[in-house]
Design a protein that fits this description.
With about 90 residues, the protein is of the alpha/beta class. The protein has three helices and three strands. A three-stranded parallel β-sheet has the order 1-2-3, covered by helices on one side. The longest helix is centred in the middle third of the chain and has 12 residues. The chain starts with a helix and ends in a 7-residue tail after the last strand.
């Protein structure tokens, strides 16, 4: 509703994943990458329109990108966003 009030589409076509934002309360042994993949799996039905995942450096590497592809199919692109010291 808020997005529509702002003149935007009701749903977003991208998902931002930040290593500081993915929390797993079940176990401290789950890595950020594994926790993110678990979250994607749980939310898969609501993510069919996602075209890209914007990830910070905590998600670098082919295993994470491959996990995303396995869960969400071939449509989303995993984009690593490098943040500089000055924003």
């Amino acid at each position: 509703m808020i997005r529509e009030k702002l003149g935007r589409n009701a749903s977003s076509a991208f998902l931002i994943v930040d290593a500081q934002s993915v929390k797993n309360t079940d176990t401290a042994e789950v890595t950020d990458r594994k926790g993110a993949l678990q979250a994607l799996q749980r939310c898969k039905p609501a993510l069919s329109r996602v075209q890209a995942l914007l990830c910070d450096s905590g998600y670098v590497g082919k295993p994470f990108a491959q996990g995303v592809q396995e869960i969400l199919g071939g449509h989303p692109t995993v984009v690593l966003v490098q943040l500089g010291a000055a924003h």
